[in-house]
């Protein structure tokens, strides 16, 4: 008779542990799960398309508990965007391979799209690479913000430019329609990543600034030293209001400028492209001043890391005779980044 009692006793003495373990599990799992979803939600809340953002990131193969910082969330968003862009690329390629029912114009526009999507892939990968580096003391946070935003704005613009190639006449609309969902998804995801990156770099800059302000208050006699330290890291002087504004501004410094009126280094985009280095590992920025450029711009793939900065969609216009003759789209495989997007 003593055996069943002992069994019961043993069971009873283990029971609290089992119950405890269950309680812990039932409490722990959902709390930590939703906590990590909270990070995704709060990251996405600073974007223009929060629902697209949240569903893309939470459906990623990366489990949400592995995303511990806003930077992790942005990385996952960008990886998702790369996959979507690859999907679009193969979709366009497939359309080109099927010989059915494409006009010359549609074929040309699809080719241009393919180039732009390819370029976007390079830009997205470069963004991921830069993000992985961040924050490294080689570049100031403001410089990172600038570089990352420039790359993503360019990738974003390409999605629109691809679709713009089809909007000229009604016949094209069917092809445009078939690309629309994929292109718009990448466009929105680029916009979302842009917003999250801006939030992250703004937050980090504000933090650094407040750390420096505290330092400054404690060591009023070391103003010059603090400035020198700032300058060697490539940071602007922190504490004057003017420089603070400078710090927050996201202006791109071009390597060369094209101006139709002769006020730049070159008068034509083609001449600027010819002057750009081949196989550059550093971004080479060509600013195209407002004006109308009647030329066809072909960018050889060897000209890596080339970036075009327009003065705005309506003020910098590139039109080539090919547009009229065989229906080429406005800007073949290039990236015109609009400053207005850098917000
Ligand atoms: C930072 O700069 C140093 C010297 O300029 C260079 O050797 C190093 O490779 C740079 N690091 C990164 C991550 O760019
Ligand atoms: C970043 O996003 C969070 C969540 O939307 C917001 O509360 C915070 O103010 C943002 N920070 C900056 C610097 O924009």
Features:
single chain; 343 residues; alpha/beta; Butyryl-CoA Dehydrogenase, subunit A, domain 3; 2 domains; four-stranded parallel sheet; two-stranded parallel sheet; disordered C terminus; binds 2-acetamido-2-deoxy-beta-D-glucopyranose
Task: Please state the second-level CATH architecture of the largest domain.
Answer: Up-down Bundle
- Strand line-up in the sheet with most strands: 1-2-4-6
Give Rg in angstroms. 26 Å
- Categorize the overall geometry: globular
How would a crystallographer describe the biggest sheet?
4 strands, parallel
Q: How are helices and strands ordered from N to C? A: HHHHHHHHEHEEEEHE
Query: SS-based structural class?
Result: alpha/beta
The CATH topology of the largest domain: Butyryl-CoA Dehydrogenase, subunit A, domain 3
Name the beta content range.
5-15%
The tally of helices reads: 10
How would you name the CATH homologous superfamily of the largest domain?
Invertase/pectin methylesterase inhibitor family protein
Q: Compute the number of strand runs.
A: 6
Helical content (DSSP H or I, runs of 4+): 55-70%
Work out the count of structural domains. Answer: 2
Poorly predicted segments: 4-12, 18-32, 217-250, 319-343
CATH class division of the largest domain: Mainly Alpha
N- to C-terminal distance: 80 Å
Overall mean pLDDT score? 73
The distinct bound ligands, ions and cofactors come out as:
2-acetamido-2-deoxy-beta-D-glucopyranose
């Amino acid at each position: 008779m003593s055996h069943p009692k002992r069994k019961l006793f043993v069971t009873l003495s283990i029971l609290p542990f089992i119950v405890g373990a269950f309680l812990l599990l039932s409490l722990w799992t959902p709390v930590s799960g939703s906590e990590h979803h909270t990070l995704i939600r709060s990251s996405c809340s600073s974007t223009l398309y929060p629902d697209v953002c949240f569903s893309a990131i939470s459906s990623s193969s990366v489990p949400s508990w592995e995303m511990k910082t806003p930077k992790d969330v942005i990385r996952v968003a960008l990886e998702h965007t790369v996959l979507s862009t690859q999907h679009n690329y193969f979709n366009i390629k497939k359309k080109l391979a099927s010989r059915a029912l494409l006009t010359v114009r549609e074929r040309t526009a699809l080719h241009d799209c393919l180039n732009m999507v390819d370029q976007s892939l390079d830009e997205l990968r470069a963004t991921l690479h830069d993000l992985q580096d961040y924050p490294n003391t080689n570049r100031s946070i403001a410089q990172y913000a600038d570089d990352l935003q420039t790359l993503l704005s360019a990738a974003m613009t390409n999605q629109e430019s691809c679709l713009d190639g089809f909007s000229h006449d009604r016949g094209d609309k069917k092809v445009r329609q078939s690309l629309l969902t994929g292109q718009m998804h990448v466009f929105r995801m680029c916009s979302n990543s842009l917003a999250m990156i801006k939030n992250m770099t703004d937050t980090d800059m504000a933090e650094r600034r407040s750390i420096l302000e505290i330092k400054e208050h404690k060591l009023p006699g070391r103003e010059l030293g603090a400035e020198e330290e700032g300058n060697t890291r490539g940071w602007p002087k922190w504490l004057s209001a003017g420089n603070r504004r400078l710090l927050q501004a996201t202006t791109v410094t071009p390597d060369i400028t094209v101006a139709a009126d002769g006020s730049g280094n070159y008068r034509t985009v083609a001449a600027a492209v010819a002057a750009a280095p081949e196989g550059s590992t550093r971004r080479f920025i060509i600013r195209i001043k407002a004006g109308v450029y009647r030329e066809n711009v072909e960018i050889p793939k060897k000209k890596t890391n080339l970036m075009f900065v327009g003065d705005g969609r309506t003020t910098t216009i590139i039109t080539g005779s090919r547009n009229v003759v065989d229906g080429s789209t406005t800007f073949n495989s290039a990236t015109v980044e609009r400053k207005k997007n850098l917000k």
